[in-house]
Write a structure and sequence with these properties.
2 domains; 22% helix; DNA binding; two-stranded antiparallel sheet; Bact_HTH_transcr_reg; Arc Repressor Mutant, subunit A; alpha+beta; Chorismate_lyase_/UTRA_dom_sf; 302 residues; DNA-binding transcription factor activity; Chorismate lyase; DNA-binding
């Protein structure tokens, strides 16, 4: 096999839209094309050699291809991620290991990794390396559901860990939302919710004192807040929700296992019962690398 171009990360003509022809382990099956979330695609049929052992197989890059080397490397790494060679939140090989396995320059490796980070397939942790990003969870804004309840409705099995559940003085913002004075006691619940053993969000809820008996001593980890309230005769009718971008402080970042200053979605909600009575103020901090909102917009008839 020809030696690879030492530093440029590109071979031959400028970038072509033709897919990189990189193989998957196993017998070739001509004509089958696979696509990935980052826009990478590849087809079976390129001759290759394979060594056994997880993480040890390095497929040769084609120095004669018009496809840049970094794009070929990106395609192969994306295929390995999609195939489950590295699980979510597991590290991929280091830059040095990838350079040695693929015989390419550091510039080529860094460009491929940067593209996969931008595409949401990988994330970096300073001083620790590069890790496989868990898949994004997409939520619509069509109806009012609890934060963890929404995950269950999507067929996921969230793990809910309760950090605190007790009476606490109301900070100013929750107090205003609940029509109470700052410092008055309210029932507070703090939780961390994980999916596939990876933290997704931390939420902090304050409930009107009238709801305390309906919630205290209950299974607030395994049951929806709204379901608990409705089982006690409360009728939840609507909510007001604001979504903002924020950066995680050290405490929240530690709970979500990301570096301090990592981006997050801050979702603040006020929930109303019958008679338009505010009964809950809640704020959830979602990892921005794992969560998205989908809003369907329709053109007004003219």
């Amino acid at each position: 096999m020809r030696s690879l171009h030492p530093d440029s990360g590109r071979v031959g003509r400028p970038f072509s839209s033709r897919p990189a022809f990189l193989p998957e382990p196993g017998p070739p099956e001509p004509g089958a094309v696979r696509r990935f979330p980052c826009g990478v695609q590849w087809a079976r049929g390129f001759s290759h050699t394979v060594q056994e052992g997880k993480g040890e197989t390095a497929l040769p890059l084609n120095a004669n291809s018009p496809i840049p080397l970094y794009h070929q490397l990106k395609s192969d790494l994306a295929a390995r991620i999609a195939g489950g060679e590295w699980r979510p939140d597991e590290p991929i090989p280091s830059e040095r290991e990838l350079i040695e396995r693929y015989g390419v320059s550091r510039t080529t490796v860094r460009q491929a990794i940067s593209d996969l980070v931008a595409a949401g397939l990988l994330y970096r942790v300073q001083g620790r390396g590069t890790f496989v990003a868990p898949p994004h969870i997409v939520q619509t804004l069509a109806e009012l559901t609890g934060f963890a309840e929404e995950l269950r409705l999507r067929g996921l099995d969230p793990d809910v860990r309760v950090l605190d559940a007790h009476d606490a003085p109301l900070p100013p913002e929750p107090a205003r939302a609940l029509g109470m004075a700052p410092g008055e006691p309210a029932w507070r619940v703090r939780r961390v919710v994980s999916v596939d053993r990876s933290p997704l969000f931390v939420d902090d809820s304050y409930f009107h004192p009238e709801l305390r008996d309906a919630l205290s001593g209950r299974d607030v980890a395994g049951t929806s807040f709204y379901a608990l309230l409705e089982s006690k005769g409360w009728v939840i009718v609507r909510g007001e929700q604001r979504i903002a971008a924020t950066l995680l402080d050290e405490a929240a970042a530690g709970l979500l296992r990301v570096p301090p200053g990592a981006p997050a979605l801050a979702i603040t909600r006020v929930t109303f019962a019958e008679g338009d009575r505010p009964v809950e103020w809640a704020r959830a901090l979602y990892r921005a690398d794992r969560y998205q909102y989908l809003v369907e917009l329709r053109r007004r008839a003219r």
